[in-house]
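Quick one: structure for this chain?
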Amino acid sequence: TIAKLPLDSFGTYVISMAQTASDVLAVRLFQKEFGVASPMLRVAPLFETLDDLNNAAGSLKTLFSCEEYRNNHIVGGVQEVMIGYSDSGKDAGRLAAAWAQY
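Got it. Here's what it folds into:
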């Protein structure tokens, strides 16, 4: 299982089509439930659709309001976040997607 492998075997766990803070917290919970010891894998939400891009700041604010997450899961004060262009471009068009990413 993943819990038995060295942590440096992995990079960041990317959550495709992330929409809410609970997407990140669920991955953290799964790691805990399956015996991944601290430090756990870093988790990065990937916001892809136009709605997800527009709501990303609120999702991250909610995530950071969780004291346990802030104190135990953010490495070096940094949270990795990814934004996707291709799905948002298909979803809303190139201009709207580029503006939302800006």
